[in-house]
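*** Residues and shapes ***
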Amino acid sequence: MPAIVLVGAQWGDEGKGKATDLLGSRLDYVVKFNGGNNAGHTVVIGNEKYALHLLPSGILSPGVVPVIANGVVVDIEVLFEELDALESRGIDTSRLKISANAHVITSYHRTLDKVTERFLGARQIGTTGRGIGPSYADKINRVGIRMQDLFDENILRQKVEGALDQKNHLLVKVYNRRAISVDEVVEELLGYVERLRPMVTDTGLLLHRAIEAGDTVLFEGGQATMLDVDHGTYPFVTSSNATSGGAVTGSGIAPNRIDRVIAVIKAYTTRVGAGPFPTELFDEWGDFLTEKGFEFGTTTGRKRRTGWYDAPIARYASRVNGVTDFVLTKLDVLTGVESIPVCVAYDVDGERFDEVPVSQSDFHHATPIYEEFPGWTEDITGARTFEDLPKNAQDYVIALEAISGSRISVIGVGPARDAVIVRHDLIV
């Protein structure tokens, strides 16, 4: 059975939770391999809506083993809050496994994230303030706290002392904040140990054995391609690798074990936070997409920026991730748009770019070159086969497929769990 990577193809919020849920009953493991609680999935099951931020969405599927792998940074307080919330609604969370090598977000990471962002003023990145960036920075600087450190109090204290030695100087002398007590941090982290103990394990070995045994494993990326720290719109990016390559380093699975890469992409485009966005709309159509698509962040509640579909970004995502299948979501939101613009290239100071410019400056100055496609007025939320769609909706999907670099295998036509059209099986 396959090992599948699922990523976002734009700037996040594409509907990855829905895609994971579509595969749920056929999966054995769902693995979160990057990010922290700075992104979210909304999954609708029947009349119930679940907003997940740190947990893999597979935790909602009975029989699936949800895994938080080594590439994730974990705010344990948030972790327990999410687990408690799900358990209060009757969801079994006992199968959750967490990598011993996953890094921990501490209280000082959250503090530094917030004060640093405020200090940047007009140059703010748009961080969620949840400590993700500072935690990854400590990881790279080799002063991070890992899950396994919590089980040895002496090692934990030494590592917290080492991390705070410099950070307290920064907080007090630069940001005019109080120093953070080592004892306070250690005591808080030790308070989580007993509940964590049965969850923490060697998840790389666990996943290797699962693939060897023929189980189906889904690697679920947080954020999205254009927010990848290496391949996104730097510096307006997240602090981890949200592309398919991140599934390898973020889980400990070899690259030749990956069988398929699925990228989720909206029928239009959105992003949250600062940074370039060539197709962004500032008119009534932007309001239309926001309101009809309910474009507000799952984690932050922030209003998302909206724009028309961007084909160069789709092609870029296809190339960078090695996409085998696109899942196109929210096609129903475009119902009622008489003529639908699609960005097919960019104009940068009179020069045409058919691909995403490598220069940050060029991308900031890119304006979209549009082609128009006839829209439709029929309600498509009940469509369950491609032939059920109006002719213009079919033509729109076929046109996007032709210019996006990979086949469109699944189409989302509404928020309900079963509001999908499957053109090609995502597992077989």
